[in-house]
Amino acid sequence: MINFLILPILIPLITGVLLIFANKSIKLQRWIAGLSAFLTVIVAALLVQKVRNDGVQTLNLSNWDAPFGITLVSDMFSALLVLTTSIVALACVIYSFKGIGEDREKFHYYSAVNFLIVGVNGAFTTGDIFNLFVFFEVMLMSSYVLIILGGTKIQLRESIKYILVNVISSALFVISIAYLYSVVGTLNIAHISVRLSEISGVSQPGIITVLGVLFLIVFGLKGAIFPLYFWLPGSYYAPPAPVMALFGALLTKVGVYSITRTYSMFFYQESGFIQQLLIILAILTVIAGIIGALAYWDVKKIVIYNIIVAVGVILFGVATMNIDALTGSVFYLIHDMIIKAALFLLVGLMAAIAGTSNLRSMGGMIKRYPGLGWTFFLAALALSGIPPLSGFVGKLLIVQGGFSSEHYWGAAIVLISSLLVLISIMKIFINGIWGKPRSFETENSVPYRKLMIAPVMLVVLSIFYGVGADFVYPYISQAAETLTNANIYIDAVLKE
Amino acid sequence: MKTNDLILQTATKLILFLIVLFSIYIFFAGHYTPGGGFVGGLLTSGAILLLLLAFDLKMVQNILPFNYLYMVALGLLFAIGTGAGALLFNTPFLTHAFGDIHLPVLGELHLHTATLFDLGVYLVVVGVTMTIIQTIGGDE
């Protein structure tokens, strides 16, 4: 079946459309959304195995040959991310059954979630730079719906900023693509890579640097790197927990993926300016994120700032362009998607029980909710990278790669950042879960047990991901191999 | 104040059908010549919009009692279905097929699956435009 790699995009797309018809019956919507999310996970897992066995998969849409039509490409990197996305989506859909409220469910909530997954999976899979823009738009359009759905005051205020930032960055994205197209005359990512290596040797290497910086700005806005993350803490704070989990786990990661992809395909042959820039920005991102995470006393804000830290850590690994660090980055990226989704769901649950997300008015939850407390504790340890949990292997490889490519300062800051991440997240544990038990007015209306299913599922998965690192490692290193050697990707697409 | 829109209403009754007919013509002008589902859909929504301007929202909803959101979804199903049909023949997604068919009354026909895709686009465009207009227009 040659169309296999499109199924993780196609299934959510068809589901999203069918769900529009089913808007009258919430029960039917839940069944359809849940089953299709489950089916997507299975298909994505099969895809990963297929890529493992048969190498990079490509599909020329409409049967137009490679550089002329739109090509979808699934290498191990993208297949793994598609699988992780599908798992996170499944968890968020399960959480939404009890956690989002019937009002939102009636107004096409599940459709929007499915279209969001179409956009994210599509962005991970496409092998065409303009098509990447299109999938970005699909993803953003659905995220506009999700961020405003419900129409509370804070949502309306933040969505204006969110839409404004994203419209501007989308415009800049098209401009950058046009600029790139005028230089190389093609949109196929593999073909662009070939053309760029031809011109970089001959004349005007400066123009590649300009292009690289432009793309860095565009993807940096989506992926929240140092000076461009200003919109993120406010916007992600507004929507309810499952939407926040989807955004936090997936949207910034698409930006990170795009930076990694363009950087490893286009700009690896550039003079080194972009590499320096990326390393400096990554380190500054880590520092800015840490400051935010330590400063706030609001559980949601603390986790949101931890997204920014993770983006910095991953990009530092990517920027060193060293096989160890890249493997670490891929490892950490997947870990981070799972654990951030789990943390957002847990924090959302805590906020729902306490009726506020202010840490100062929480406390003593472990007395009445021991399951929540210990799940959160495990997630916190995994986040900061305590062995043998899943954050450890990734960070170890990134730091190792940083030292061996002589970026001592960067690697040291990444190391220190784990400690500070631990402090910031333990602050939630000590003040919110530990401490003197309080009683909350809102807690009895929260369907605690049913809401715990999704985060427990994710945390268990993350533990297996860490403990079973030996089993996962071959997949990850295959992904990193494609990233360090652009020719694998190019040969698969252009069939030379 | 009651405005006198007799001329507009009378003209609309005639022009409406011309625009709809023209939009159908444009729709079938299809994928080789200028035209297609998008333009056709916009023209049709233009016609309905004219009806809205000449009369009022309630009356138009009586004449055309569609749920435009379902129309969008139906259009999407057509478009995706055309693309996904290629999966049955193990050809890449979105691969189209065409052929010449002889029908007794109509004569030689050149049929192309792109028309089905365009029908989807047409429905989506009409549905989306009308949803937007009704939402804004229905807001007091």
Report the structural category of chain A.
mainly alpha
Number of strands of chain B: 2
Rg of chain A is 21 Å
Number of domains of chain B: 1
Helix content of chain A: over 70%
| Spans where pLDDT lies below 50 across 5 or more residues of chain B | none
Helical/strand content category of chain B:
mainly alpha
Classify the beta-strand content of chain B into a percent band.
5-15%
Count of helical stretches of chain B: 5
Give the biggest beta sheet of chain B.
2 strands, antiparallel
Strand order of the largest sheet of chain A: 1-2
The H-and-E topology of chain B, N to C, reads as HHHHEEH
Distance between the termini of chain B: 17 Å
The count of strands of chain A amounts to 2
Shape of chain B: globular
Count of separate DSSP helical elements of chain A? 21
**Oligomeric state of shown chains:** heterodimer
Query: Taking all residues together, what is the mean pLDDT of chain A?
Result: 90
* H/E topology pattern of chain A: HHEEHHHHHHHHHHHHHHHHHHH
Structure characterization notes:
Chain A contains 21 helices and two strands. By secondary structure, chain A is an all-alpha fold. The model of chain A has no long low-confidence stretch (mean pLDDT 90). With 140 residues, chain B is mainly α. Chain B has one domain (6-138). Chain B has five helices and two strands, in the order ααααββα. A two-stranded antiparallel ribbon of chain B has the order 1-2. In chain B, helix 1 packs antiparallel against helix 2 and helix 4 runs antiparallel to helix 5 (114-138). The A-B interface holds A 1-3, 6, 10, 13-14, 17-18, 20-21, 23, 59-63 and B 69-70, 72-73, 76-77, 80, 84, 86-87, 90-96.
